[in-house]
Amino acid sequence: DAKTTQPPSMDCAEGRAANLPCNHSTISGNEYVYWYRQIHSQGPQYIIHGLKNNETNEMASLIITEDRKSSTLILPHATLRDTAVYYCIAPTGANNLFFGTGTRLTVIP
Amino acid sequence: DSGVTQTPKHLITATGQRVTLRCSPRSGDLSVYWYQQSLDQGLQFLIQYYNGEERAKGNILERFSAQQFPDLHSELNLSSLELGDSALYFCASSPQDRNTEAFFGQGTRLTVV
Questions:
Q1: pLDDT band at A97; cut points 50, 70, 90
Q2: What are the tens digits of pLDDT across the range B35-64?
Q3: What's the average model confidence in pLDDT over B5-33?
Q4: What is the pLDDT of residues B56-111, one digit of tens each?
Q5: Contact B11, B85 (CB under 8 A)
Q6: Which of A84, A83, A94, A82 is nearest to A31 (CA)?
Q7: Lowest CB count within 10 Å: B2, B23, B70, B104, which one?
Q8: Which pLDDT band holds residue A96 (cuts at 50, 70, 90)?
Q9: Which stretches of B14-63 are assigned E, i.e. beta strand?
């Protein structure tokens, strides 16, 4: 897997956009970027993934820089239920996802 | 609900014992993954199966083994259990073996006493 770097923690006010950055400077041309989150002790939840174009779904938006060395996950209107650990992953080859330490997002009322 | 079913949800057993954790993937998914998460630790990838065959292996101990059956369900066998094996064990499934999102079950909480 390409090495990914995320800040260990972030806070976001409820109702505001949460922007979670991820650096993946060693990513190769055919590696997707995946985002998952884990709410305390629950199974990780898939959020979104992309290759080089920006992606949006009902949960979030994913912005990938043109050089693909970094990306940002955007939760447009954070709620208290979005408090979780967010993981950015760039798997190589087989889809064995290696989770790092992620970013602990705390949404504050 | 992710569509991935893990049983049992909780398991308490003694050191030295053997247990089997079961995972039913989402309908149509061919790939199954197993992860271990110890208290306040990250998710450690153990092993991946695709359509019955082992596809990738991570930090899986020799005391642990897994298999995927023809109906695509998977079992993780943990033997000679130690206190340090107490953890959440998650199973995930995906349609293919690469470049697709994975969906996780709610886990089996194993406590070794």
A1: confident
A2: 999 987 788 999 999 999 999 888 899 999
A3: 97
A4: 888 899 999 999 999 999 999 999 999 999 999 999 999 987 767 899 999 999 99
A5: no
A6: A94
A7: B70
A8: low
A9: 19-24, 31-37, 43-50, 53-57
CB contact under 8 A, B101 and A96: no
- 3-state secondary structure (DSSP) of residue B42: coil
CA dist B13 and B111 (Å) reads 6
Supply A37's token pair.
């989150």
Question: Which residue of A lies nearest to B58 if distances are taken between CA atoms?
Answer: A96
Residue given tokens 């082992």 in the structure block: B54
Query: A96 touching B, CB under 8 A?
Result: yes
Give the one of B42, B45, B105 whose C-beta lies nearest to A96's C-beta: B45
- Is A44's CB within 8 Å of B104's CB? yes
Q: Residue A98 and residue B79: Cα distance in Å, rounded?
A: 24
Residue B33 · residue A96 · CB < 8 Å: yes
Q: Does A109 touch chain B (CB under 8 A)?
A: no
- Backbone angles phi and psi of A55, in degrees to 5: -130, 150
Look at residue B111 in the predicted model and tell me its pLDDT: 97
* Residue showing tokens 């292996």: B57
> In chain A, count of helices (H) and strands (E)?
0, 9
